[in-house]
Design goal:
Blueprint lengths: L5 H26 L6 H25 L2 H13 L1 H8 L3 H11 L5
C-alpha cells in the first residue's frame, strides 16, 4: 500500500532523477566518452531509461483530472477526439502519450 501523497511521490522521483544523473556524471568522469568497457555504455543507457521513466511518472502524477481522462480515452477515441471531448490541449495530450508510450500500467 502506497501511503505517500502525490507531492511526496513527485519529490521522491525528482530526487531519484538527481541521484541517477549524478551516478551517470560520476561514471562519465571516471571512464570518459572514448573507448571504455561495454558495461559502462550499458549502465549509462540504463540510467537514461530510468530518468525517462521517472519523468513520465512525474508527468502522470502532475496531470489534472481532465487531462487524465483524456489520456485514458485516447486509446479508444483517438487523441484528437479525446482532447476535444475533455477540452484539453492536444499538444499537451500528445506530450503525455509520447512520454508514457510502451509502458505497462
Amino acid at each position: 500500500m502506497n501511503t505517500r501523497s502525490t507531492q511526496d511521490e513527485i519529490l521522491f522521483l525528482e530526487g531519484a532523477i538527481k541521484h541517477t544523473e549524478k551516478m551517470a556524471t560520476n561514471m562519465l568522469a571516471e571512464y570518459g566518452n572514448g573507448v571504455r568497457p561495454s558495461w559502462v555504455s550499458a549502465d549509462l543507457a540504463d540510467y537514461g531509461d530510468r530518468i525517462s521513466r521517472y519523468k513520465a511518472e512525474i508527468a502522470r502524477h502532475s496531470m489534472d483530472n481532465a487531462l487524465r481522462r483524456a489520456v485514458a480515452d485516447a486509446a479508444t477515441f483517438g487523441p484528437v477526439t479525446s482532447a476535444a471531448v475533455h477540452n484539453v490541449s492536444l499538444t499537451e495530450l500528445y506530450a503525455i502519450i509520447n512520454q508514457t508510450k510502451g509502458k505497462n500500467k
